[in-house]
């Protein structure tokens, strides 16, 4: 059996960095080199301040960096020396041309494939780590075949990552499964066995699944689509709960105890974010449309539409409660990353809620314990978010390093990320410094246990999937329920 002794990973981002750091720690006899064209990122990996935040990651990196884990910008040398090459580059959604807004942009994958075949000799295993559309491996293989050399033998595998940001190290060390897809030829099976041997250093064989390449690629898209679907499903129920007086947390607990359903990913919130869910669902939608499966495409598009509706609905609720206008009003927004325990803001719901409030002229004071000020300003200055008016960001947005400063003289406090620290703030102190009536909009249900205490202080509380009131208001259904477009904010309710 072919034995892997040297690994090169192209791409030092959220996938490549943590994955290869854990491999290096678990396989001390394998030399792992992570390469990237971004010099500042590589310098950060070689410093005491890593470019990404993940609980436990710094300890893993420091335990093997300089011994069998290296970070470098010398991509050609790392590829040339490696037995196995991971491709872990970004595959963003296209922003132009055919498939704009849905299809994955594979230009970085193609560039890697061409660089690998150009500098390689001998036998190498090339493995997709990035999330890619089905049959991307075939595209890589065609590039290899069209540029082959007599001395070159490249095998292509699919090995998608299933880690979740915030728990990446634990997910990598204790994975639910490791999925490896390859050709059903003798050479393909040989490559699969070689990669299996790497993971078998710490992963039980029963958790290592081998498939053909296409099944592996589709499994990654389907897994993320199913997870996103569950979030959108419970968020749809949260809207119904707010209209009827039910509590979505109680509903989620009741249905989650059914073993056929389970309790995971039934947490109502302001919507899902991150680099994968929206991108992968949109990729799946585009794939279905390209294969003439419009009904399937429409089904999965609804997952995205519901996520967007939940964000708009929450923003409109803030505006409605603040007497139907937020123009010139200071609003404290706590949390900007897409989830706790990460500094990643990609597709964060906080970005879109900020956009809707900025569109109404609100003055936002933003605090997040891990996201840098420059990242927040950059996210809100995107043309699609700033309405091609980045100057409004400098006029209306202030990023603070203290949550109490963010809340000073604010009309409302909005929780957009479920950081644990937000459960422990001194809300009595915050209330005294806010304008009255003082509102808390809890988009993550992190303050459920404090509702009675907060109401005693004097706060008006609004949360996802529940009406918070001192006395329960009986529900009287309206004669006609208005239809709400996912592309437009819900109509404001007339105050009676």
Query: Which shape, going by the Cα principal axes?
Result: elongated
**Order of adjacent strands in the largest pleated sheet:** 3-2-1-4-5-6
Query: What proportion strand?
Result: 5-15%
Count helical runs. Answer: 19
Oligomer state equals single chain
Mean pLDDT: 92
- The secondary-structure class comes to alpha/beta
Helix proportion range: 40-55%
Largest sheet: 6 strands, parallel
Which consecutive residue ranges, at least 5 long each, have pLDDT under 50?
471-487, 492-496
Tell me the Rg in angstroms.
24 Å
- Note the gap between the termini: 76 Å
Count of β-strands = 14
Structure description:
With 496 residues, this protein is α/β, with parallel strands linked by helices. It is built from 19 helices and 14 strands. The strands form three sheets. The chain has a six-stranded parallel β-sheet, with helices on both faces. The longest helix has 32 residues, at 213-244.
């Amino acid at each position: 059996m072919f034995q892997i002794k040297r690994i090169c990973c192209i791409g030092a981002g959220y996938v490549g960095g943590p994955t290869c750091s854990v491999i290096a720690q678990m396989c001390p006899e394998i030399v792992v080199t992570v390469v990237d064209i971004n010099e500042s990122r590589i310098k950060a990996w070689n410093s005491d301040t890593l470019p990404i935040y993940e609980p436990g990651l710094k300890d893993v990196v420091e335990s093997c960096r300089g011994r069998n884990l290296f970070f470098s910008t010398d991509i050609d040398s790392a590829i040339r020396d490696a037995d196995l090459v991971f491709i872990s580059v970004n595959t963003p959604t296209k922003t132009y041309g055919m498939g704009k807004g849905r299809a994955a942009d594979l230009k970085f994958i193609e560039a890697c494939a061409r660089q690998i075949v150009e500098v390689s000799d001998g036998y190498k295993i090339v493995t997709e780590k990035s999330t890619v559309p089905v049959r991307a491996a075939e595209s890589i293989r065609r590039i290899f075949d069209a540029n082959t050399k007599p001395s070159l033998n490249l095998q292509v595998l699919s090995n998608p990552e299933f880690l979740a940001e915030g728990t990446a190290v634990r997910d990598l060390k204790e994975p639910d499964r490791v999925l490896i897809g390859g050709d059903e030829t003798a050479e393909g099976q040989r490559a699969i066995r070689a990669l299996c041997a790497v993971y078998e250093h710490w992963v039980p064989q029963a958790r290592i699944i081998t498939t053909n390449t296409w099944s592996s690629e589709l499994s990654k898209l389907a897994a993320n689509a199913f997870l996103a679907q569950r979030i959108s499903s419970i968020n749809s129920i949260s809207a119904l709960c707010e209209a009827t007086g039910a509590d979505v947390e109680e509903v989620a607990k009741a249905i989650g105890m059914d073993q056929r359903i389970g309790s995971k990913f039934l947490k109502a919130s302001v919507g899902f974010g991150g680099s994968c869910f929206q991108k992968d669902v949109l990729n799946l939608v585009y794939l279905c449309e390209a294969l003439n499966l419009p009904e399937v495409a429409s089904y999965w598009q609804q997952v995205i539409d519901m996520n967007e509706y939940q964000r708009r609905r929450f923003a409109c609720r803030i505006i409605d409660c603040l007497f139907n206008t937020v123009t010139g009003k200071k609003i404290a927004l706590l949390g900007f990353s897409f989830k706790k325990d990460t500094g990643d803001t990609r597709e964060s719901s906080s970005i879109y809620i900020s956009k809707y409030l900025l569109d109404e002229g609100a003055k936002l004071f933003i605090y997040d314990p891990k996201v840098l000020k420059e990242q927040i300003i950059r996210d809100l200055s995107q043309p699609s978010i700033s309405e091609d008016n980045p100057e409004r960001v400098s006029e209306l947005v202030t990023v603070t390093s203290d949550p109490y400063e963010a809340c000073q003289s604010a009309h409302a406090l909005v929780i957009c990320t479920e950081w644990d620290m937000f459960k422990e703030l001194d809300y009595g102190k915050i209330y005294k410094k806010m304008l009255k009536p003082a509102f808390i909009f809890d988009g993550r249900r992190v303050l459920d246990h404090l509702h009675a205490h907060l109401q005693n202080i004097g706060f008006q509380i609004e949360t996802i999937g529940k009406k918070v009131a001192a006395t329960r208001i009986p529900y009287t259904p309206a004669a006609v329920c208005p239809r709400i477009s996912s592309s437009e904010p819900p109509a404001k309710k007339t105050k009676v």
